[in-house]
Amino acid sequence: MEKKMQTIAIIGAGNGGFAAAGDLSLAGAVVNLFEFPEFEKNIELVRKLKAIKISGAARTGTAKLNLATSDLGEALDGAHIIMITTRADSHERVGKELAPLLKEGQSVFFMPGSMGALFLYHELEALGKKEIMLAETLTLPYAARKTGPDSVMVHRRTGNLGLSAFPARDTARMFGIFNGYYPASHTMKNILEVALCNTNIIAHPIPTLMGASAIERANGKFNFYGDGHSPCVDRAIEALDKEIGSLLQAFECNVTSPIKAVEYRFSKTSKEIQEMRAAWNITAAIDKDMRFIAEDVQESLVFVVTLGRQFGIPTPITESLICLLSLFVEGADYYNTGRTMEKLGIAGMDKDTLLNFLQNGCC
């Protein structure tokens, strides 16, 4: 009971942040919701009402919040748990702004992570802060869309969530905290396994590239998982899955491919998962802010390639996707702006050093 009354700070007031804030508040947590100042219009009404209306496949009703704020220090004050629900391309900023304000004993979850916890870890190391625990999940716990300035619809839960702490020696402790709020979850070997098993890597870029003309002509009515799939597309996805699987196997991960990870998450076969996703009727459009490019290519595919290059593991399909999808965005230079081994502070490590770092952190 005491665990359910802990204070949770949700960082990011997008669809996932709204869903987490509403659901966890109704679960008994004291919730502080934060949004960056330049996006504070996202929380104007919620800040006034201190409430979010949540419906769908979660706890439903009017969820009372402790506060909604664009002051990060205010959001973190008294929080035991911090959940990062921003897009992956803001993780570096989150790390820089969060580190000076965190206090010993706080636990931070990146949902999802894609190795983003390392940005915060290096900032904490520079400040000499040791007793702050970090973890990453495979994805957000909810697929949700806002239905108004103070309301959100959760269309579905996102399956059995995988989680690892960084360093992985803390996974049991972090899992104990997370599982109290999200019982449908399981542990993974380390955050590298979590990052490579993020299904978005294989689910989004290839259908976007191969269906680009149809997506543009559909004017926002393209069923991404339904219209975007065909036998040819699925063969390309399987080839990318095998390529990323070679990285998972090289680093002695427990999961052999992203497809295997998502089958475990939903307890369904790939075919059943595809049919389920097609029924969701999620629409897509192509523009410079499209998450499938700005996030999945820049933050995930670039990491896959630079990881492979460092350890001599070929990733030709992933490299081709980055090359071609970068053409969709004028001036894109994803190897410069994306999530590289250098930016994560792990360039130059050999395999044993990297695995030890993922398990134990800095010695």
Helix content: 40-55%
pLDDT under 50 segments (min length 5)? none
Distance separating the two termini: 37 Å
Strand-residue fraction? 15-25%
Please give the count of helices. 19
Judged by helices, strands and strand pairing, the structural class is alpha/beta
The dominant shape is globular
Number of strands: 14
Mean pLDDT: 93
Strand arrangement within the widest β-sheet reads 5-2-1-6-7-8-11-12
Largest beta-sheet characterization: 8 strands, mixed
Tell me the radius of gyration: 20 Å
How is the secondary structure organized here?
Elements: E1 7-11, H1 15-26, E2 30-34, H2 44-49, E3 51-56, E4 61-64, E5 67-69, H3 72-76, E6 81-84, H4 91-98, E7 107-110, H5 117-127, E8 133-137, E9 142-148, E10 151-157, E11 161-166, H6 171-181, E12 185-187, H7 191-196, H8 200-203, H9 205-210, H10 212-217, E13 222-223, H11 224-227, H12 231-250, H13 258-266, H14 270-280, E14 283-284, H15 291-294, H16 296-310, H17 316-325, H18 334-337, H19 351-360
Parallel strand pairs: 1-2, 1-6, 2-5, 3-10, 6-7, 7-8, 11-12
Antiparallel strand pairs: 3-4, 8-11, 9-10, 13-14
